[in-house]
Amino acid sequence: MIESTAAVAVNPADETIHLGPLTIRFLVTGKESLGSASVFECAVPAGEKLRAPAHRHDAYEETVYGLEGALTWTVEGTPITVGPGEALCIPRGAAHRFDNLGAVDAKALIVATPAKIGPDYFHEIAATMAAAGGPPDQARLAEAMRRHGLTPVPAAVGA
After folding, report:
1. Counting C-beta atoms within 10 Å of the first and last residue's C-beta, which end of the chain has fewer, N or C?
2. Residue closest to 120 by CA, chosen among 50, 63, 38, 53
3. Residue 103 burial by CB count (10 A; 0-12/13-18/19+): exposed, middle or buried?
4. End-to-end CA separation in angstroms for the chain
5. Model-level pTM?
6. Where are the domains of the chain?
7. pLDDT tens for residues 15-24?
8. Is 75 helix (H, G, I), strand (E, B) or coil?
9. Which has the minimum average pLDDT: 20-29, 57-66, 104-113, 140-149?
10. Alpha-carbon distance 109 to 63, whole Å?
């Protein structure tokens, strides 16, 4: 039997972070899962395009499960639309980004395994965006991404 110091609870992280027009709601972080997974919802308004550059993560997989609306994930240059009840696993090292190209708001459940990303990343990105007072400073976003294990990729690679 594995000993856990984390309390067993529904949505133990339960933290909502506003990232410009996006809403990120953490349900489980690495702290609660003993590092095995981070689980969060990402709500994206209709017509919203991701403001951060495409990126890769070499230390974890990212699995996306559509809850509402549809998000278009571009993985290694290939657009893949994920709607309600559909899942997409983005392997380590794959360049990717997402946009809501639809006319309705979208929401997805995202599971990162292992839990190499958490609320700290999104708090730093939100602060960087707020400090810009307009379009985010792409160089500062890229620096923050690197600190949290994401590698920005040139637009031509991730688009």
Report:
1. N
2. 38
3. exposed
4. 45
5. 0.88
6. 15-150
7. 999 998 999 9
8. strand
9. 140-149
10. 8
Quote the CA–CA distance of 151 and 148 in Å, as a whole number.
9
15-150 topology per CATH: Jelly Rolls (2.60.120)
Q: What is the mean pLDDT of residues 132-148?
A: 84
Q: Position of tokens 């984390």? A: 6
4-24 residues labelled b (16+ CB within 10 A) or e (exposed)? eeeeeeeebbebebebbebbb
Q: How far apart are CA 138 and CA 132, in angstroms?
A: 10
- What's the length of the chain? 159
Q: Is the pLDDT of residue 158 over 80?
A: no
Residues with Cβ within 8 Å of 133's Cβ and at least 6 positions away in sequence, in order, are none
Q: What separation in angstroms does the CA of 88 have from each of 15, 66, 109, 124?
A: 24, 9, 11, 26
Q: In the structure encoding, which two tokens stand for residue 121, read together?
A: 């990343």
pLDDT score of 3: 56
H or E element in which residue 122 lies: helix 119-132
